[in-house]
Amino acid sequence: MEVFTILYFVTFSLVLVHAYNINLTSCRTCSNRVDVPCYIQELDYPCIHDEFDGIWPGVPRNLSSRGVKIGKDDMAANFTWNAPYDASYRTLNGFLLTVNIAEDYIIQSMRYTLQQLPICFFANLSGTNWDMVPKPHSVLFHFDCVTSNNQNMVEVSLTLKSSPVPGEKSLTPLSKSLKLAPAKIEMTRRLERHQRDTLFGFIKIIEGTTRTG
Fold it and tell me: What is the pTM of this model?
């Protein structure tokens, strides 16, 4: 008697809706000064804009990041920085930005992290005449093109270089990252912190009453 085993393979496709958006229309400018025109351009990967072996600018300064609320629930990843703090800013024609985005998904009670391919941008300063800019080291540059749509946790990382980039030598770039949490997650965390602080308060009251008695 022959026994046949039949195997059934069930396949399905899962369409993941990204929890982030990139809108260059609303974040095209990247400077807080009208005398330092700066605009964002998206580049192809790998992130290369301009390399040469002449005099190049130094490393940018004071890179910081924070989440900024936009609209009712959405958040934007806001990065700010300053030009190099030396005379090399005169050779600065822009900044090269490499953005990495990771998203957390929960599927059937399991958490997954999806790492996106790097996205390249160039903060173009080609229209800036540095000889006409007073206090150039105080100019604040910014990048806030990545926003979350309140669906999942999104981690945004930015690597920043001055341009042009030296062809043979390598300058250490600046990097910063932050997490954009959906409002419901943030509210849950605040509630947990409130409950924890309340519990500690009750414990202290009990301890104080015990010692007094």
Answer: 0.72
